[in-house]
Amino acid sequence: MRLALTVGEVLLPLLYLLLFVAYLWVFYENRKFAHRWARRLLATTVVAHLAASVIHARVHHHLPMASPLEFLSLLALSLLLIYAVVERRLRVRETGFLVTGVAFLLQFIASAFSIAEPAANPLLEDPGYAGHAVLVLLAYTALSLSFLYAALYLVLARQLARKTFGLLFRRLPPLEVLERMSVGAAKLGVPLLFGALALGHLWLYDLADKLDPETARSLTPFDPKILTSWLIFLVYLAGLAGHRWWGWRGRRMNTLAILTYLAVVLAMGAIHHFIPSFHNFSLRGGV
Amino acid sequence: MAGRAGLHLWGIDHRLAPTEVRERAHIDPERVGGLLAALSREPGFVSAVPVSTCNRTEIYVEALPGFAPFDSMTRSLAGAGLDPSLFTGEHAVRLTDGEAVRRLYRVSAGLESMMLGEPQISGQLKDAYRLAKEHHELGPVLMRAFQGAFRAGKRVRTETKIGEGAVSVAFAAVELARKFFADLPRHRALLVGAGETGALAARHFLQQGIGGLIVVNRSPERARTLADDLNGGKGELVRARPWEDLPAALADVDVVLSTTGSLEPVILPEMVRAAMRRRRGRPLYVLDIAVPRDVHPDVARVDETYVFGLDDLDEIVQSNLAARRKQLPGAERIVEEELAEFRAWVREMDLRPSVAEFRAYLEDLKEKQVGYVRRKQSDEVAAAVDASLQQFIKKVLGRSMESLKSAESEQERQQHLATLHRLFAPQTSQTSQEPREPSEPHDRP
Known about the structure:
The complex is a heterodimer.
Chain A: H1 2-29, H2 32-60, H3 68-90, H4 96-112, H5 127-162, H6 167-171, H7 175-210, H8 213-218, H9 224-245, H10 250-274
Helix pairs in contact in A: 1-2, 1-4, 2-3, 3-4, 3-5, 3-7, 5-7, 5-10, 7-9, 9-10
Chain B: E1 6-13, H1 19-25, H2 29-40, E2 45-52, E3 56-63, H3 69-79, E4 92-96, H4 97-108, H5 120-135, H6 140-159, H7 169-178, E5 188-192, H8 196-207, E6 212-216, H9 220-231, E7 238-241, H10 246-252, E8 255-258, H11 269-279, E9 284-288, E10 305-309, H12 310-326, H13 328-376, H14 379-405, H15 410-424
Parallel strand pairs in B: 5-6, 5-8, 6-7, 8-9, 9-10
Antiparallel strand pairs in B: 1-3, 1-4, 2-3
């Protein structure tokens, strides 16, 4: 098992690199066989990384999130998973190089600087927390992809408005598809976020029963991070409803998606740094 | 040795001949049979494939050395009701053998087309080939040349990007629309004006699968006539609406094609702003192909409205053409590779008669030798000698073929062939001689 982990650490960045190259090939060449190779490599990389994560969890008895580097690796996998779903739905691969490029970078850093056995927070051994954390990761990854496609929409819309018929004009998918990709990613992110929040609440009550009364009192559903997450969920839900029922489309809708995402990042960053929260799972603080 | 069949190409194309000459030289499918029948009466004629499109008329002929190209072709063209002077004058191209094949390969790959790399020529060549095959049996050289040309065309289109990007204004308009909308069938277009240009553009959008078309024109009668014409009696994909409906129609469609002859703009900013409020941010793609322009310049400033004109379409076409031209070296390399394969096949065809003579000579010798052994020894020994000599012949022939194929020049190859022919041709062969008694019968049991 440990040998498999070591092999995985070497192979995974290589697979991610190959995947990135395949998607770059699709972007520049747009040939059938390039598409075929990109599709196959995406499936292979996702399966290989999932297998490596399962082996890791079985060897170390915890979710591979014990260190920032393990987190980066899981983030790379999460990016690929969400992207794979969006790509499969819309069958558009021309933008894959952006996602796989970021995923490769994350995985490369994770593999290059990894340490053998980081000290893990015991919470990571808890299946309730693990499920919550994975869902949170997937949800925010989906919302990040939604942001990326909204940004690409604005780039192409700007090129069209300025009548710049360059490489991006030739290679990017139509505005309509970019919008569908952005909305599609948000449609994945919103239920995932709901699932993450619901599981988090259930796990919170479960955890409170196991802790001493004083610590248990610090666990509150009115934690700033939880409240902000619910707010984010509601804003995105409203955006999706607007798109579905009130015909929100085009540049304005995509600008709104970008601004919302930036607000999410800023709000979460500010809360993390300035407002004390039980929602801190480092070894030193939190529960 | 019998003379080898050669290829002759007689034709005219868009580079040398103006449209009126090309129109007169056009051979419609009904005339192909007559032309082939006339050609088949000419001495030395083997087969022919006439190819006639709007940009070229070319007749590829396979014929034996007895064929007199000029006399035979002019007689046959006249016999088929065509003007032979069109194919002999200043607009004509006449090529033979290797050059004719190169031309065919380049035509198939779209390298000789008016729009570099256009794909339609491939289908047109295949149709011409099929039609010629229906009328008569094609000769081996012509058949091989066309098959090679199809292969070259396919390789050029799949291995290079010579066919990518729109290279006509009509296609560029659709290509641009596809940058907004993924599925044209899910979107509708509005045609403002019922003139010829508008009808052409509308027809093109309909061919590309636009989901519906509304025609508005100052004269409702002309709008209705054009709508009926575009519908072609099938369904109601195209509908005419009164001119007063123009502002409302802008909210119902995603693509606007404007081609009126109006001296003043007919699509105004207030009109578009009102439509955009109803559209709730759905982008509107406006194509103004009228001169003077139909769309007020301020319309481009309305949010989510993208206005393009003829100059923009031309810029896309020029940029795509430049990109296609960059693919030329790669495409030409593929054509030359396929031509080399054709030449190798021709060389092999040339060798066949001489090699057959040589083989016959060796087989004859073998039979006599085996017969001699059979008379002196048992059948088993004769069978063993037969098998052994068969192997020997195979090796000798294989080696000879290799030497002939690898001759450094055509002259050297012809020398080898002449030698082979002189030595082993039936009239000079020594095969009638009885084999002499083996001097050293090493393998006698």
